[in-house]
Design goal:
The complex is a heterodimer of chains A (318) and B (263). By secondary structure, chain A is of the alpha/beta class. Chain A has 12 helices and 15 strands. Chain B is mainly alpha-helical. Classes of the chains: A alpha/beta (318), B mainly alpha (263).
Chain lengths: 318, 263
């Protein structure tokens, strides 16, 4: 996509000049908080929403002028699995097969295979409303695969799921990718992007602020940081002391964070300096760079923290 | 081209089947179509049967003969409203996005819903015909008349379903479509569905006389209480065609707007 824009009525720029390219066979993760523009981008790429500026091509087809061809090439599992609770799992997949032009017999066979693949064959005749959140996501994923799409869009596929269900979805996505499917997923989970993606695009306020492989993004940050838990909450004094050893970072979970200029070599000196300042330390962790550090470096706040900026646009763009 | 048309017809049929299943599985959607009209029919037939003796009341074999068309049209109007509610629920929960992301004609989504509403209309017509026959209704025009009644009710379901769909697509909110429920009864009582226009007081009589619903009701009632009249037939067909044209047009516009704005 080139200079992609999507502005809503009221002048809200949900997507504000996004450029990116995803190679065939890649898993690309779009990482950002609620309201960043992830879902709006996916809705444009899946032809559910027209862009207001720029251009986007999916599987070689323009999303505006060749929307039909795009829809034939893609599979979509949207945020909050959009399933009919009154349908059974099998009915849903067979309907999806019909929507993609498959004959009834082929649709029935494909439904059997996909339900088996996502471990839902035993629940196939049950109404979707009786499924757990994890089962619903697996069914949603299965329905997106009915026509063996070249490109699979997954919008926050594991949001709200327990760790076991999350892992199951990850394994399935990896398997699909090994089979040659290009995957474009959005997530607000750093671990998800780190584990699954070949490349990560960090989006904030409708703009891409960083894009590379997870390893390269972390290497760009370079230095590890120290997370210091304090006994008496003397955070401001501790920050002053630590400032001598590197760049202070925003607090996280009540801990003081500092990016060490010389890495692990600085730890002993930091401990001595805190001790000399009569600051009681409860815990001390040397943390290697994570995607969260990348996120902080690029946006100034933590993605998975409670200190991200308020977004008044959330209801409109996500 | 033909393959594309056949695909879209299969999609319309599949979505219609889903719509019917959805209605039978959700009592809130099913009850207005069968239970409410049946209750009103029972209450009115039991409590106001003496109305047939009023001067100016059409000549009928029994009050139920007169009321049957009203019950059918009430059921059809509520089927259209229920179809609109179901479509709005689909929009609210994102199911419509699943359909919009598929390589099908987007109007097939609306037509699929209307196909389901039409099937429910036919079911309702057959149900009330059966109820009527069990309780002694005599259809003057016989089997042909009964077939005509089912056809009119089915076509009316498409017309009224289109209105429900248009409102659902325009607002995307089930509560708004549901809020029109009382309006259905206002329109019904200001027509000849439950009482002859000639016995109404002004201004209700004038409103009912020109209410398109009255034309449809008379078209459905005519084969029951008298020999088929060309005038009633053509007026009913014209009213259904006009409402269907309007409602499908509005649905198309609402769908286009939704696709353009994304909500």
């Amino acid at each position: 996509m080139r200079a992609l824009e999507r502005t809503f009525s009221g002048g809200v720029h949900a997507v504000d000049g996004v450029d990116l390219e995803v190679a065939e066979g890649e898993i690309y993760a779009f990482l950002g908080p609620n309201g960043a523009g992830k879902t709006t981008t996916v809705r444009v790429l899946t032809t559910l929403l027209r862009p207001t500026g720029g251009e986007a091509r999916v599987a070689g087809h323009d999303v505006v002028t060749e929307a039909g061809a795009v829809r034939e090439a893609i599979g979509v599992a949207l945020q909050e699995a959009a399933l009919d609770p009154l349908m059974t799992g099998r009915e849903l997949i067979r309907l999806q097969a019909t929507l993609h032009g498959m004959p009834a017999s082929a649709g029935a066979e494909r439904a059997d295979a996909l339900l088996d693949r996502v471990g839902l064959e035993a629940a196939a005749e049950r109404r979707v409303g009786t499924y757990s959140g994890g089962m619903q996501r697996r069914l949603d994923l299965a329905s997106a695969l009915v026509h063996e799409p070249r490109v699979l869009f997954l919008d926050e596929p594991t949001t709200g799921l327990d760790p076991v269900s999350r892992k199951t979805i990850w394994e399935e996505v990896e398997k699909l990718n090994r089979d040659g499917t290009t995957v474009f997923l959005t997530t607000q989970y750093l671990e998800e992007a780190d584990k699954l993606a070949n490349r990560v695009g960090i989006i904030d306020a409708g703009k891409i602020v960083a894009e590379d492989t997870p390893a390269s993004l972390k290497a760009e940050i370079g230095r590890p940081h120290l997370e210091i838990g304090l006994v008496d909450g003397a955070a401001s004094r501790a920050e002053q002391v630590c400032a001598a050893f590197g760049r202070p970072m925003p607090e996280k979970d009540g801990k003081v964070l500092v990016e060490l200029e010389r890495g692990a070599a600085d730890v002993a000196q930091v401990v001595r300096a805190l001790d000399e300042a009569d600051i009681l330390v409860e815990s001390l962790d040397l943390v290697q760079p994570t995607l969260d550090d990348v996120f902080v470096a690029k946006t100034g706040y933590h993605l998975e923290g409670d200190d991200e900026p308020e977004s008044g646009e959330e209801a409109i763009v996500e | 081209m033909i393959a594309r048309l056949l695909l879209n017809l299969r999609v319309v049929a599949a979505l219609g089947r889903r719509s019917v299943r959805q209605t039978f599985r959700r009592p809130q959607l099913f009850a207005p179509i069968i239970i409410f009209p049946l209750l009103l029919l029972a209450i009115q037939t039991g409590g106001a049967a003496g109305a047939v003796d009023l001067p100016g009341f059409p000549r009928v074999n029994g009050f139920l003969d007169f009321m049957l068309a009203g019950a059918m049209i009430q059921s059809t109007l509520l089927a259209g409203n229920s179809g609109g509610i179901a479509l709005a629920v689909d929009i609210e929960m994102g199911f419509t996005d699943r359909l919009l992301a598929a390589p099908i004609s987007r109007f097939a989504i609306v037509l699929g819903r209307l196909a389901g509403t039409a099937a429910l209309g036919a079911f309702s017509a057959l149900f009330f015909l059966a109820v009527g026959l069990v309780f002694g209704v005599q259809i003057e025009e016989g089997v042909l008349g009964a077939a005509l009644m089912v056809a009119f009710v089915t076509l009316s379901a498409i017309a009224f379903g289109g209105l429900g769909a248009a409102i659902a697509l325009r607002t995307g909110r089930a509560s708004v479509v549901q809020g029109l429920f009382p309006l259905v009864f206002v329109i019904l009582f200001l027509s000849s569905a439950f009482f002859p226009v000639g016995l109404m007081l002004e201004p209700a009589a004038t409103v009912a006389e020109y209410n398109p619903l009255s034309f449809i009701v008379e078209g459905i009632r005519d084969p029951v209480i008298s020999t088929l009249s060309g005038e009633a037939f053509w007026k009913a067909l014209a009213a259904i065609t006009a409402i269907a044209g309007l409602s499908l047009g509005l649905s198309g516009l609402a769908l286009r707007r939704r696709l353009r704005t994304g909500g």
